[in-house]
Specification:
6 helices; mainly alpha; single chain; 60% helix; Alpha-Beta Plaits
């Protein structure tokens, strides 16, 4: 019964939280409507998620904290690059990141994380699904950037989506 009512409990909680944030009002009506969305949307979308991967929520919460911190830090870094670094000193680069992640959900979270972090954007996934193409605003050492992204984000996602 609980699996049918809450097929994706994490998504349900996220939908309620996002509804309250979007409405910017913490009242009973806002929370109730958020709960309605949090129950109905996962129920109606469950058929399109037949084999959802198991997610470990402890490491996932740590990952969210790390990503939020990195977004804040990257905003300041990009601002410094824009304000103080001359254009001829920029070293933009296309990075080809080999993927250890195999599920579509994990790859989507990885690509989204890269795009959310200022200074980088995920541009394409290879046809075989083994490489992610990323553009970096300033990457003097592309190999080091690839290693950093794999260690900071992908390794944690491998643990989360085990």
């Amino acid at each position: 019964m609980m699996n049918r009512l809450f097929p994706h409990p994490g998504l349900s909680l996220l939908l309620v939280a996002m509804w309250v944030v979007m409405v910017s009002d913490l009242t009973f009506g806002t929370i109730f409507l958020g709960m309605v969305f949090g129950v109905l949307v996962p129920i109606f979308t469950a058929p399109w998620w037949p084999e959802r991967p198991p997610v470990r929520f402890g490491p996932a919460m740590l990952y969210v904290g790390i990503v939020v911190w990195d977004i804040v830090v990257a905003n300041f870094q990009v601002a410094a690059i824009i304000l103080f670094k001359p254009n001829h000193a920029l070293r933009p680069a296309w990075l080809t990141i080999p993927l250890e992640l195999k599920t579509a959900e994990a790859i989507t979270v990885f690509a989204g994380t890269i795009s959310l972090t200022p200074g980088t954007v995920s541009a394409d996934l290879s046809a075989c699904g083994n490489y992610l193409l990323v553009h970096a605003l300033d990457a003097p050492d592309p190999e080091a950037e690839v290693a950093k992204v794999k260690k900071r984000y992908e390794a944690r996602l491998v643990e989360i989506f085990r």
